[in-house]
Amino acid sequence: MGWNRVAVVGAGLIRFGELFDQSYESMAHGAFVAAISSVDKGFAPDAVEAAFVATQRGTLWGQEGIGGNTVPSAIGISGVACTRIENACPSGSDAFRVGAMAVASGVHDVVLVIGVEKMRDKSTAEGLLSRAASGHPIYNRGETAPVLFAPFATRHMHEFGTTREMLAAVAVKNHHNGTLDPYAHFRNEVTVDQVLASPPVCRPLHLLDCCPQTDGAAAAILVSAERADQFTNTPVWVAGFGVATDHPYLHEKSTYVALPVTTAAAQRAYAMAGLSPTDIDVAEVHDCFTITEILDIEDLGFVDKGKGGVASLDGETALGGRIPVNPSGGLLAKGHPIGATGIAQITECYWQLRGEADGRQVEIRHGNALQHNVGGRGSGVSVVNILTTNGP
Hints:
The chain is α/β, with parallel strands linked by helices.
């Protein structure tokens, strides 16, 4: 094992959904309480030396000062060093990476990584996601998130024979997993027929091929290896991480059957961890659309290119499958509160590795879990984090 000098000793989140009754700050407080309450040997809030806040509030709401200077006060740790991190859909996973580097560097021994997002208080028509997707006035005219991903679905279908039933299988699996996750936005089963019959959004994607806009917050506590046993006897270690970028516009892409940015980030994470895809027991990946998960499992090396649809239809990624993917329900069922998403995925990986995932627990053979996000305009950035129970 290559790089595991940082331990995760606590993680938690609030129930995702349409949280009109909660403020941005109260959601953050709830996630912080959940994280510190999960620490086996107890955790005093004043032990936090620095906080990294993941949020898209600057981009989505135009409130650039929110996050770094409001969250510490809201959760009761005012005075600590705090930095806001905003990096599109991987904001939470990138905040986790930066927090891990802060601990590994020796600058801080105890770090809070927290993500929080309000997605439902303003509609897309009022400028929420349209602000995030803005760019060149001609190159991305009319582009929404489904418009950006639909071409990958049609090309994957053309080259590999992927069908809408294969896409639907991803939604069916993740909604089933969501019924087992008390934190998921949607906790209802769906059938292949229901996915196929749901309203069209952008051919070939239909409504149930798309993740919802969701409010939520999640948090994790990172500590140095030397101090891990102060908090728990069963830490989860940061084994590796990787980040990569790509061109932001569709006409600049080199392929429409892969997201090379994911492969590049994964290769860096695998190399740092000294692992390969076959060493991963469970993965939380970015399934903003059903086609995205199919691309993810190929680009992360879990299945051969072109086989993602077949693997999904055959149950290889189900809870009892060869490589369980998105046991939390994924973005499709749990939701996608952007700043919180990556940290919520980290939390699921933490629970899975510790055997604490209740009715959705998967078999852990190697002690390794992978978390992945991809996003930004045109899927221009990806972050992969790998966690392990194999200590230094």
